[in-house]
Amino acid sequence: MDDQILFRSPASHDATAMRLLAQGSQVLSVNSTYYYALMARHFQTTCMVAEGAASLCGYVIGYCPPEQADTLFVWQVGVARLSQGKGLGKRLLISLLQQKRPDFLEATIAPDNQPSINLFSSVARHFDTDHTFSEAPFFNEEDLGAGEKGEHLMRIGPFSYHS
Length: 163
Prior knowledge:
The chain is of the alpha+beta class.
């Protein structure tokens, strides 16, 4: 892994690169450039990008759900294909958690998405904290529409941060 990767809050000008990373993954939902620009602008404190020498190589999009200020909900983690399998997604999540310092982390994951389950479980182990993966769907196929898989809620925490 290139040690020259900078982790920072996103800016709206990162939106095109974020969309292209999602598209290049061939597994993530791809949204409009406007969507990524809006997330980067409105949720700078709950999102993060990883920038290598030449370009953006990863991002995390998250937010604090209404009525849950102690929880960071991660909507999407995108890593460039050339950077996959090198721990960048985990490093991004850990960096964002250390910056934001929520009590809990949540994400919805399809039960057959083992790479995402492994990523979030690894983050829980890093912080030596509990994690649960719900038995029942958080969103089912009816909620998400034809062709979409249901997703279950993974909840991690509470976190203890050391200075």
